Amino acid sequence: FGKKLISDYIARRIGANFVPCGTKAEEVRDVIYNSYTSTEKTLYAFFDCDDISATSKNALLKVTEEPPNDAYFIMTVQDTSNVLGTIISRASVFYMNPYTVDDIAEYTKHSGISFDDDVSVVVNQICICPNDVRIASSSDIKAVYATADKFIQYIGAVNLANELKIPQSLDIKMDNNEKINTVMFMRCILLCCADMISQEISKDDVCVFSKIISETSKALHEYQSKGSNKQAVLDNWIVKTHMAVSGGAF
Question: Residues 108, 123: contact at Cβ < 8 Å?
Fold first, then answer.
């Protein structure tokens, strides 16, 4: 996490222009062509490359064979096994640790962004990078958490058709500030479940909340994957969570 921040920092340290790049094959080819024709020192950054096409990977492989002068390339991935071994052999590999709860709290403290004390506790646990804090600052986190808490109380206990209406209140297209940020909502669900499990509840309730955590974690990962059909991901998540909690009852 913080990949854009560290990439920009590296560019400034080496005195290079910082250029974030797309990962589609045509975009990669254009970047490589520009890197050979540019007369300025430039750092090109390709983010989230785990799922890029074989064509894009091969194009990046070729530029590592004969790198242009004054051009630097950064690729970020979640799993290095998704990168061609020949690219890794020609690169310097750095592993970044995720931000801790204390890191997020420290960033929030010094960013000029303020939250009420009870909201700050939630923000520090559902935000995993500075950009999340900025998103949270424009959201009603109290309302998001309350909606998440309502979700875990009623999922599997009401009509599935009604549960499938839940995504209608989520900002799937990320273009409507009046709707709930989907990622913040799902992380609040995970936090609500964890909070419930930490209390003295029955084994049956622990099992229910564990199932919600399992299905929500998988859906959240898929939802954030590039190119995913977000509406389908959410619909499948609702159905699977309902079935897991209800034991298959509609």
Answer: yes
| Residues facing 75 on adjacent strands | 46
Residue 39 backbone dihedrals phi, psi, to 5 degrees: -105, 5
For the chain, the C-alpha Rg in angstroms (whole number) is 21
Backbone angles phi, psi at 65, to 5 degrees: -75, -40
Q: What is the pLDDT of residue 234?
A: 96
For residue 68, give the DSSP letter: P
- For the segment 108-164, what is each residue's pLDDT rounded down to a tens digit? 888 889 899 999 999 999 998 888 999 999 999 999 999 999 999 999 888 899 999
Q: Residue 109: what pLDDT?
A: 87
Distance CA 248, CA 245 (A): 8
Q: Strands 71-75, 42-46: parallel, antiparallel or unpaired by DSSP?
A: parallel
Length, in residues, of the chain: 250
pLDDT (tens digit per residue) in 49-70: 988 899 999 989 988 888 898 9
Which H, E and C letters describe 77-145, residue by residue?
Answer: CCCHHHCCHHHHHCCCCCCCCCCCHHHHHHHHHHCCCCCCHHHHHHHHHHCCCHHHHHHHHCCCHHHHH
What is the token pair recorded at 15?
């005195």
Residue type, 43: L
User: Which residue type is seen at 4?
Assistant: K
The structure's pTM equals 0.77
| One-letter identity of residue 96 | M
